[in-house]
Each structure stands twice: as C-alpha cells, then as structure tokens.
Amino acid sequence: MSTQAPTFTQPLQSVVALEGSAATFEAQISGSPVPEVSWFRDGQVLSTTTLPGIQILFSDGRAVLRIPAVTAAHSGRFSVRATNGAGQATSTAELLVTVETAPPNFLQRLQSLTVRQGSQVRLDVRVTGIPTPAVKFYREGAEIQSSADFRILQDGDLYTLLIAEAFPEDSGTYSVTATNNSGRATSTAELLVQGKHHRLINSSKTSSLIHAGEVMITQHLAHKTPPRVPPKPTSKSPPSYVSKVTAGRQQSPSPVRHVKGPTPTPVRYKTVISVKAGGHLN
After folding, report:
1. Which of residues 63 and 207 earns the better pLDDT score?
2. What is the DSSP string of the chain?
3. Which residues, 6 or more positions from 147, have their beta carbon under 8 angstroms from its beta carbon?
4. Is residue 282 part of a domain?
C-alpha cells in the first residue's frame, strides 16, 4: 500500500466571532494512511480539559473545532496538525472575538457567464461581515453541497464555486447568500452552458449552407423529422407543394410562397423538399 504525507486540500480560515456566539474552524485533510489530528491554540495543545466546552471532530478527512460560546479570552492563533508515517502538515488561522457587529457585504458579486460544454466554471464572490458570515451557494433555489464535481472553496473573504466540467443541464440561476446575526445579503447571476448542437449552428460553414441558413433554421423548428415528399397531384390544377411542406407551421407565409408560375420548376421543387431537420441541403 502506497503512502502519502498529509496535505490540506482546504486549510483553516480565520474567524471573526461575536462575543457569546459560536466559532468554528474547519479543514479538509488527505493522506495515506489516515493522519492523526491535533489542535493547538497559541502553541498549546487543545483538549476538552484545557478548554472546556470545545468540540473536536475528525471524520472522512474533515477536521472540525467548534467553540459553542466564545469570549474575549478565546481570541488567538488556532492550528491543526495532521501526522502519519509519511510526514506531517499544519494549518493555522486567527480567532478574533468582538462585541461589534456588521451585516454581510459583498465586495465582489457573482458575474453571469456563458461557456462551452466541457469547460471549467469558476463563480467567485468576496464578502465581509462581523461576525464572519455563513456563505452558501444555490442553483435554482437548491443548496449546492461541496463535492468532486461542485467544489466550494474559501480563501479569506473569497468564496468560490468550482464546477469541474460544465454541461448544458448545469445552466440556470446561481445565487450566494451570506448570513450572520446582523443580517443577510444575496448575489445572483446566470450561467449558460452551450452544448455541441448550439456550436454547430453558430460555427462557420460553406457559403451554400450560410445562404440557406434562414430556411434551414425555420425547417428545423417546424419538423421533428425530415419533411416528406409531397404526393403527386390527382387533378389538373397546379400541385400545392408549398402547402404540403409548410403544413402545421402556424406561422406567417414562408418565403417559398413567393415562387411564381403555375408549377415550380424541378430546381425549386428540389430545394423545398431537400431541407432536413439537421440543417443540411442536398
């Protein structure tokens, strides 16, 4: 079994907490074998004996230290150390306990994006507040949980939603909420992921396909399958090719209706019936 020294995939972040409220430090750690975790404040080992009331958890690489009700005496530098047979790593952050408050404020708001399918997407916000706001990301009103595909990262006051590989179904309205006991703030933006079909219609094609673009797109919207060849006329009256091709469109008259003469020439007839749903002309 291979070994790997501990690393912090998400380090500790400094916390500003209102006196009497809860303060939480959290880090994500990887390593093989699973590291042992120790916590320190100002260089002294922390335990429920040295700091009564604290809660220390470590599960699935997630290390958490929670102080249910902070006082000014809790302020200081907090560290978490991860150790295994391959090495060790440490992450440190500050706890500041204050009696002042400030509602969340976005220094940088979400920005709407249009990307291609398969692209990596990064949605960033910067937000401040006292105490430190709880920040959550949402898509269409549903909270996003951090995962391998949708990672939520924090670096100081910068919060990021990182989509590893975007698909059209990821399109929609994304929002971020920042909440503390002084208030709540929200930022919203749109994400549009263009699929392969969208890129095909907008890509450069031959001149004949570009000239036929209006008919091509109209026929694609009107037919789920390629239009059928009109039946042969059963009377001496001119065949009604146009009504057969455009039946069911429920739209204004097609430019094809301007063809003059009692009977379309073979060339015009071929143009009408060879329009396919995929947008190609024979």
Report:
1. 63
2. ---EEEEEEE----EEEETTS-EEEEEEEEEESPPEEEEEETTEEP-TTTSTT-EEEEETTEEEEEESS--GGG-EEEEEEEEETTEEEEEEEEEEEES--EEEEEEE----EEEETT--EEEEEEEEEESPPEEEEEETTEEPPP-SSEEEEEETTEEEEEESS--GGG-EEEEEEEEETTEEEEEEEEEEEE-HHHHHHHS---HHHHHTHHHHHHHHHH-SSPPPPPPPPSSSSPP-HHHHHHTT--SSPPGGGG--SSS--HHHHHHHHTB-TTS-B-
3. none
4. no
pLDDT > 60? residue 201: no
Give the pTM: 0.55
**Does some domain include residue 150?**
yes
Task: Pick the last residue of a domain from 141, 159, 194.
Answer: 194
Classify residue 281: in a domain, yes or no: no
- Which pLDDT tens digit goes with each residue over 96-138? 998 888 999 999 999 999 999 999 999 999 999 988 899 999 9
Domain span including residue 143: 102-194
Taking 50 as the threshold, does the pLDDT of residue 141 lie above it? yes
Question: Is the four-CA dihedral 191, 195, 198, 200 of positive or negative sign?
Answer: positive
Contact between residue 117 and residue 195 where contact means Cβ atoms under 8 Å apart? yes
Claim to verify: residue 164 and residue 228 sit in the same structural domain = no
Token pair recorded at residue 14: 């400094």
Q: Is-contact 121 115, C-beta < 8 A?
A: yes
pLDDT tens-digit profile of 13-30? 999 998 888 999 999 999
| Structure-token pair, residue 42 | 């100002």
